[in-house]
Amino acid sequence: MRKGLAGVALAVLTVTSAFGQVSGDVVKLGVLNDQSGVYADLAGPGSVVAAKMAVEDFGGKVLGKPIEVIFADHQNKPDVATPIVNQWIDVDNVDAIVDVPTSSVALAVQEITKNKNRIHLNSTAGTSDLTGKACSPTGIHWTYDTYALANSTGKALTKDGGDTWYFIVADYAFGHALEKDTSAAVESAGGKVLGAVNAPFPNQDFSSFLLQAQSSGAKVIGLANAGGDMINAIKQAHEFGITDAGQRLAGLLVFISDINSLGLETTKGLVLTTGFYWDRNDETRAWSKRFAERNEGRMPTMVQAGVYSAVAHYLKAIAAAGTDEAKAVMAKMREIPVNDFFAKNGRVRADGRMVHDMYLVQVKTPAESKYPWDYYKILRVVPGDEAYRPMDQGNCPLVAK
Amino acid sequence: MFEMLGISPQALFGQLLIGLINGAFYAILSLGLSLIFGLLNIINFAHGAQYMLGAFVAWYLLAYVGIGYWPALIVTPLLVGLVGMATERLLLRRLSRLDPIYGLLLTFGLALVIEGVFRHVYGVSGQPYAPPASLSGGYRLEFMFLPKYRAWVVVVSLAVCLGTWLVIEKTKLGAYLRAATENPTLVQAFGVNVPVMVTATYGFGVALAGFAGVLAAPVYSVNPLMGSNLIIVVFAVVVIGGMGSILGSIITGFSLGLVEGLTKVFYPEASNTAVFIIMAVVLLLRPAGLFGKAA
């Protein structure tokens, strides 16, 4: 009897504790990404830096408990990522998994975090399935997705006179999804798709495919690929004088690190969509310069800035919820608008989509660029509601139709 | 006839020309591999990494020392060749009496280490390297725009391939080389320093890879993975041409480039596989390769 009473008393104390509840007496964030492979430059160690900055800026503590950031390399392989995530959650008491590039890996992590009630803050994976059929009550897709990229770039270029398109498609799920989404956007804006060529993935030499795109006579060549493939395609398009002859290139997934590695002479004029640009206003510049100091002088990509924003918002939500229990924190994350250097009045929807403005930008010419990393001019701010897929069209099971 | 195939003659000739250009890279790389295999009996899996090294050295020279493309074309192969000679002296020599599989494993390991280090230090998005000013721009042909730089690649590759072939087939040095591959002990007995020749040959083969790397730098991004992407195709070229056959690798290199170019017109999805299908067929019909001598 006495024992029972004590138990009840303890339970009451626990629930009503003014200090809130933090499992394991520490809030642990696990940054899971590619530390040395194809996506290491655009996320990689830079994302770890961004997460650590968010923690430091928050004061290093939440609800009186320390915040810890750990990281691991998933090598872009779901079978490498899965045991790491299980270990993190089951043994190391990690509360949130952060970053997670590569769509296939992100989908695996989404599944585990859903089943084990942990939070998945995804900034880098592209697939819009994360808020579609694979959506999770504890998953948030923060920075961009394939739908938003295709929709903004596709529509904008079509309306700007680029009403005929030809696609060079990386021959796997990601490339085909980008092609499909962009074709729909182009056609809805009154444009026409003249054709597409499926290039093997990965591929070094795009000259043949570019030649086919050139002879199609399309006004815009859409590059439905990413990373090294995209870089080689752009480099060779420049070599073959395709842009000088009047055809435009549309990069459907381009990071500022790609532009840096290609150089402006090669990329000038390229139109693309991004979720963040470091040189947009005083606030973004201030943060980005702090970031660059800690990232070997390299300015943040949109996904690295997104990692900071997501982590900062997550910590705020823990403070507001008074616990680090995933569902309670998620409720707060949905409730509080996202207002920081990254997003203004962003909001987390029920399907996990963080809706915020996107930016349609054009790459500057070498003459227009005045200082290092001065790469983009912003053509248009695409309002979040226009950029992202309406919630009822994603087939997310969490959203009642 | 072209219309029947659903393709314009313009596009076809364009693709053939591009195939020839890619073939130039295949030829020059497989030539080095063949040389090394012919004399050292080593299947040099590090060839791709050495090619990547060539591109990176050219980039270093430009970015940090201010040495441009033209001097780099000479300096880089020398440097990369020296690295190759050191590798032969320190590592490969110790395996010379063993089964060739050990050489393959060692060079494969080396390739992984070299690529891993570069990937760790430079990431994978690659470094920019522009073609020299005198070779930028291009010619507007009837059927396509031919970048000057690519035309140059074909010409210089052909010249290097022919030069190498001439040295090996028509000079005294080449005769020693060929003799040493047949019977090293006997050639040594005639007073020829075979170990030095072996080191030099490996160095030259590696230098060829470095040279191809410099040629490739302005076309592909200078990227730690550029070698591993190409090396498998190049091995297929060597096998189709006949292991160790110099002429075989040159001719096969160029012609497989052409075949690949054609595949990209008719069925692009298969363009990465076409070479391997040909390899399978050739090996079934002629197990020693097109120009190889049956063992």
State the gist of this model.
Chain A has 401 residues and is of the alpha/beta class.
Number of helices of chain B: 11
Query: Would you list the SSEs of chain B in sequence order as H and E?
Result: HHHHEEHHHHHHH
| Number of strand segments of chain B | 2
What's the Cα radius of gyration of chain B?
19 Å
Tally of strands of chain A: 15
The first-to-last residue Cα distance of chain A is: 50 Å
Low-confidence stretches of chain A: 9-18
Largest sheet geometry of chain A: 6 strands, mixed
Question: How much β-strand is present in the residues of chain B?
Answer: under 5%
- How many angstroms separate the termini of chain B? 44 Å
Query: How do the strands line up in the largest sheet of chain A?
Result: 2-3-1-4-5-6
Helix content of chain B: over 70%
- Indicate the structural class of chain A: alpha/beta
Low-confidence stretches of chain B: none
Counting H and I runs of at least 4 residues, what is the number of helices of chain A? 14
Overall average residue pLDDT of chain B: 89
Rg over CA atoms of chain A: 22 Å
Chain pair forming the biggest interface: A-B, 42 and 44 residues
Overall pLDDT score of chain A: 91
